[in-house]
Amino acid sequence: MAGALHGVVALDGPSGTGKTTVARKLAAALGAGYLDTGAMYRVVTLAVLREGIDPDDSVAVAAFAGHVEVGVGTDPARPRARLGGEDVGEQIRAERVNGAVSAVSAVPAVRELLVTGQREIIASVLRSVGGIVVDGRDIGTVVAPDAPLKVYLTASAEVRAARRSAQDSAAGRTLTAEQALASVDRRDTLDSTRKTSPMRPAEDAVVFDTTELTIDQVIVALSELASQRGLLGDEYAGASR
């Protein structure tokens, strides 16, 4: 049965804005599929590191990327990430991956490969479920430029760093607030200045600041936006479902 959301919600923005959590909860609330495109780049990055390839060696990364088996789940309740047949959901969030993913994801061949896969996943979910929430850094500009709702989440650097530090602590990873801020700033700079698909809001994106908002407040606001765009069917029962 088709979900309440009909079509694609493209959710972009830098790390620490709550983007991934918001995307998962919004997809669950609207009975939609979910795709974390960042996880796909992280899987490739993990494979590159395991292979002993320098992430900054774009030629070697490009040659190797086509051999990496990337798998991601589209159920917001179980968004698994796989490398081959191995569940690597925890490993791709490690700090060594955080430090290398921008370099790997900047390689044009990697982006071309994964964007093709992302579009195939989106098309498959739209056929089977009816709607999907996709989060990343180039969804509205590159992956799904025709999405009827594009949102670019922002938040202050300090708040994003604090969120990142809290997430790492909850997952058992030690990262001070200063280290988290430095990591967030570094990733944002690299991703917004890369030549291929730089991180930026789409021209028709709704820019939404989450600095002073809870996750639930963001979910309600985005659900209302989807409703205003005519993307919700009769099955929608509210974001608190």
From TrEMBL:
- Domain of life, per the record? Bacteria
The name this protein goes by in its record: Cytidylate kinase
Q: What is its EC number?
A: 2.7.4.25
Q: Name one GO molecular function term.
A: ATP binding
Q: Which family does it belong to?
A: Belongs to the cytidylate kinase family. Type 1 subfamily.
ATP-binding in keyword set: yes
The species this protein belongs to is: Prauserella marina
Q: Which UniProt keywords apply?
A: ATP-binding, Cytoplasm, Kinase, Nucleotide-binding, Transferase
Q: Which GO terms describe its cellular component?
A: cytosol
HAMAP family the record matches: Cytidyl_kinase_type1
Reactions catalysed, as given in the entry? dCMP + ATP = dCDP + ADP; CMP + ATP = CDP + ADP
